[in-house]
Amino acid sequence: MTTLTPKILAFDVFGTVVDWHGSIVAEMARLYPQVDGNAFALAWREGYRPAMARVMSGELGWTRIDELHRMILDDILPRFGLQAMPEAERRLLNRVWHRLNAWPDVVPGLMRLKQRHVICTLSNGNIGLLTHMARHAQLPWDCVLSAEVFQAYKPDPRVYRGVAEVFYVAPAEVMMVAAHQDDLAAARACGLLTAYIERPLEFGAGQPKDVSPEPANTLHARDFLDLADQLGA
């Protein structure tokens, strides 16, 4: 157990808190069983970084993740024979990102962690999306912080420094919690503590992730319950 006492735990959400892949696969099996849900989920997520890059480069003005997800969705539908999907169905499917399911350890882990720390999101997801997701998955956040607040997407330093500014604390009093080493490296460069969470099945059982420890991180945890143990919560 560590003697670290970060005041704020800021959580990445997609993949770290919620199982986006499994949730989308289940949604596709329910609504469009003729489609390969695994391939569809991966294709939708694959468009995420290129879409954000268009905003970060200035090609697009500030655009919320909901709108980026819809742009990607419209682009991939023909690939899966769904080009004739009506507008109402497209809107419904795009909101699957609002109703993603949490990993099993998340809610009990967060309930423990919030006894000693302020817990908040620090996600590229927009505020409405993250709020609906929290209600769906019963995520007990103290605060929902989004790239939307800072009008910048991670890994822009404004996002990581912004969480410290919001809570009037030093960057070293914030711990970024994520299942992605690039997110943590960017947070660390801004002076934040970092905790890596293993999510080997983030991309599904067919695409297991390398979850090897990165020595530069402050902590390495199997899941949120293990993180709570290490932080003495």
From TrEMBL:
Enzymatic reactions: an (S)-2-haloacid + H2O = a (2R)-2-hydroxycarboxylate + a halide anion + H(+)
Keyword field: Hydrolase
The enzyme's E.C. designation: 3.8.1.2
Gene3D superfamilies in UniProt: HAD superfamily/HAD-like, Putative phosphatase, domain 2
Keyword DNA repair attributed: no
PANTHER family: HALOACID DEHALOGENASE, TYPE II (AFU_ORTHOLOGUE AFUA_2G07750)-RELATED (PTHR43316:SF3), HYDROLASE, HALOACID DELAHOGENASE-RELATED (PTHR43316)
Role description: Catalyzes the hydrolytic dehalogenation of small (S)-2-haloalkanoic acids to yield the corresponding (R)-2-hydroxyalkanoic acids.
Stated name of the protein: (S)-2-haloacid dehalogenase
